[in-house]
Amino acid sequence: xxxxxxxxxxxxxIEFIDPVRFISNRSTGQMGYELARLAKKKKYKVTLIxxxxxxxxxxxxxHFRVETARQLNKKxxxxxxxxxxxxxxxAVCDFRPIYSLNKKIKSRHNIVLKLVKNPDIVGSLAxxxxxxxxxxxxxxxxxxLIKNARGKLKKKALDLIIANKLDRTNMxxxxxxxxxxxxxxHGFKKSVKKATKKRIARAILDTIDELCYTPN
Length: 216
Fold this sequence. Notes:
The protein is built from 5 helices and 12 strands. The protein is an alpha/beta fold. The chain has one domain: 3-Layer(aba) Sandwich (Rossmann fold), CATH 3.40.50. It has helices at about 30-40, 70-80, 125-130, 145-155, 195-210, and strands at about 5-10, 15-20, 20-25, 45-50, 60-65, 85-90, 95, 115, 135-140, 160-165, 180-185, 190-195.
């Protein structure tokens, strides 16, 4: 039996304002890299697409680096053709500057930054691209966590979504203990409370294993 092929995205994307300045987010990539490491250990055939992070990819993993959301979108579409499972653990910038200047903006100038929406990578996949694949997404919310995550689960036609809430008791970025909720498209809901990202990654992969071998 051939190993299942899993495509994992990790880290932030960045959107350039000029050659030295950009907008981004606080993602460290730890979740995606931990998923890639454990998936390789579970004998998956792993491809990791990463935004700019300071982490080294696990050994034996196909690894690609991107910077912008549009670069990530292009690479995901190319690699998804060869994958059975997509795990979108990256934190994609929702917006980018309308224009990226070729020269550094002088600090003596005030600027107004106009933004345009970036592509919704998973949400824009055609039905034929999603067919017979397991799709896993992440949702980070500051309010109405379960409601908003379930909305994304349905809208993007995901099989599983991992819901994170950012508040004073739970900081999703970096190390430490986190609480997440696994929500499935058939109403499945299970929490992983006060756990390391290694434990959370293992719980996510266990659920993916179940999805792969459960009839639709």
